[in-house]
Amino acid sequence: MKLIPLTVLICGPLFSPLPALIPADTIGTTGVDLQNYGPAWQRIYYLPEFGIYTAWVKTGMWANFYSFPARTWSGEVSVFGSQRNAGGNLAVCTRSSSPYYRSPFISSYINREPRWPIVAVESIPGSGIFSMRPPDSSLIECQRPPIAFTANNHLHLLCADPNTADTLLYSRSTDYGITWTDPIPVCGPFLPENPTYSIAGSENSSRLAAVWTNEDSSALWINISEDGGINWTGPQNIFPVPTAITSPKPGRQGAYAIFDRNDRLNVVTQIWDGTHQYPAEIWHWQENRSPAWSLVFRFAPGSVLAGAEPGDPFVLRPTIGQKEDGTLFVLWLNYDSLNYEPLTQIARADLFIAQSQDNGLHWSRPFRLTGPDNCSRLSPCLAPIITDSLFIICVIDQLAGIYEQGHGSQTVNPVVVLRVPVTQIPGISEAPPHLNRQLQNLPTIIRTRQFSPRSCARFYDLTGKKLSRPDRAGVYFLSQSGKMLKLLILP
Q1: What are phi and psi of 282, to 5 degrees?
Q2: What is the DSSP track for 77-120?
Q3: Per its UniProt record, what Gene3D superfamilies does this chain match (predicted)?
């Protein structure tokens, strides 16, 4: 499938056809807005010079694979066939010593009684043939099982204890998901009602981490194993975050974690007070760094035109990846209060990204990757390995409002993969000028057909990027006659 303009593919031209800034491929469809019904689990993996692996929730788990040698997608395929299954995630075996080298493993759980985790493997990437492992009786009744590999080729799984619903269970497979160890508790009575936990495995060692949060308390827990899940250091609350937000909470989306190239655990999460949609922030935590926490982005406007998805903060679902030179990138979903869906009165969401070249201590200004237009980007995930491009999977919701949470009608939406060249993302030294120091409190509102700027006027978009002139509706900043004005251009 060739790369095509996202705005033309999904939304159609808004005013006049625009060149594609970010190549995007449609890889499938889904009617599920809230992928995995809460937490951000890995759903995309990039293996340089070989391929891009993807997984998403549709009617159960679906997958697609892009081959760089063949320069094509294999086509979307149902992973578990007729077996009723719900949400899960993706893990790829990357050790050349393994008989499953480069093979994707996808987890889910049987969505009927009795419920238990299931895993399938595509031995030949792109073949579309997934082989489901027989469900292991030791895991019966466990649900929502994210998986991860460690460097010793062991596959690891987390799930919720179905009997008490207050314990997080861990199990390990040394034969690629065929048999599993008896599950053991790794968190104690700290599991929230919502499935806000995740797992991260190191590709360079046997290090493993369980990460979870409780929506009703100001806590974010980690538990690390240095020996591939045999022994655990014990639960550690890495909160509080040094934020100005009163009673900060990570919320029901939980946190996302990876081990970086130096084998350090990195965690990203959203922060809010659990009630007010803003201020809201994105934070990064790194093991053995001082300070451990760093602020990636703060969303704190004086007011908003439209609210975010009810029950959610304005910024959420961050994921993280790392370039081979050590540069870190954090991607998140950001609701745009000036661009809302008339039918639901809910702000549409777009994707933003920031980078750090000093191990996460300082972050660049956010760079807007998508929109604004008449679509909403949901459930984004950034591939953890980055070379010259970032690869992102997301759902393009045609009607803003998460159907599973009772907002808006259900629509069949495209699942897309975006390729973002690293050179398009401004670094810290290239950050655009800070534009809001001289802004008026209220924007100047004009229509496209009425817009006739002076030749000496200078324009900037919301990220601070300089433009020749606005060529579609949206929010812009105008520098003219020594003044900085905020423009809201309507169609």
Answers
A1: -110, 130
A2: EESSTTS-B----EEE---TTSTTTT-EEEEEEBSSSSP-EEEE
A3: 2.120.10.10
Radius of gyration of the chain (CA): 22
C-alpha dihedral sign at 390, 393, 399, 400: negative
DSSP, res 33: S
Between residues 192 and 120, the one the model is more confident about: 120
Position 407 scores a pLDDT of 83
Q: Average pLDDT of the chain?
A: 85
User: Across the chain, which distance is largest between two alpha carbons, in Å?
Assistant: 74
Task: Kindly state the DSSP code that residue 11 receives in the 8-state scheme.
Answer: I
| Per-residue confidence (pLDDT) for residue 411, from 0 to 100 | 87
Are the C-beta atoms of 101 and 26 separated by less than 8 Å? no
User: CA–CA separation, 445 vs 369, rounded Å?
Assistant: 24
Task: Give the integer Cα–Cα distance in Å for 226 and 229.
Answer: 7
Tokens 């409002």 — which residue? Answer: 401
35's CB contacts (< 8 A; 6+ apart) are 43, 56, 57, 87, 378, 379, 395
Q: CA–CA distance from 207 to each of 99, 182, 270, 347, 425 (Å)?
A: 22, 20, 25, 40, 31
Dihedral sign, Cα of residue 314, residue 320, residue 324, residue 325 = positive
Look up residue 335 and give its two tokens: 């609701």
- 432-463 pLDDT, tens digit per residue, is 444 333 333 444 544 444 455 555 566 666 55
Cα 358 to Cα 456: distance, rounded to the nearest angstrom: 38
Domains of the chain: 4-424 (2.120.10.10), 444-490 (no CATH)
Q: Which residues contact 423 (CB under 8 A, 6 or more apart)?
A: 388
Which pLDDT score is estimated for 217? 72
| Overall residue count recorded for the chain in this entry | 491
What is the separation, in whole angstroms, between the first and last Cα of the chain? 32
- The tens digit of pLDDT for each residue in 362-418 reads 999 999 999 899 999 999 999 999 999 999 999 999 989 887 777 878 889 999 999
What pTM was computed for the model?
A: 0.84
If DSSP codes are grouped into helix, strand and coil, which group holds residue 9?
helix
Helical segments of 421-488, H only = none
Is 47 in contact with 98 (CB distance < 8 Å)? Answer: no
Encode pLDDT of 306-362 as tens digits: 999 999 999 999 999 999 999 999 999 999 999 999 999 999 999 999 999 999 999
How confident is the model at residue 477, as a pLDDT? 64
pLDDT digits over 47-75, tens only?
999 999 999 999 899 999 999 999 999 99
148 with 140: CB under 8 angstroms? Answer: no
Can you tell me which residue has the tokens 């540069």? 327
Contact 419, 440 (CB under 8 A): no
Taking the C-alpha atoms of residue 239 and residue 250, their distance in angstroms, rounded to an integer, is: 9
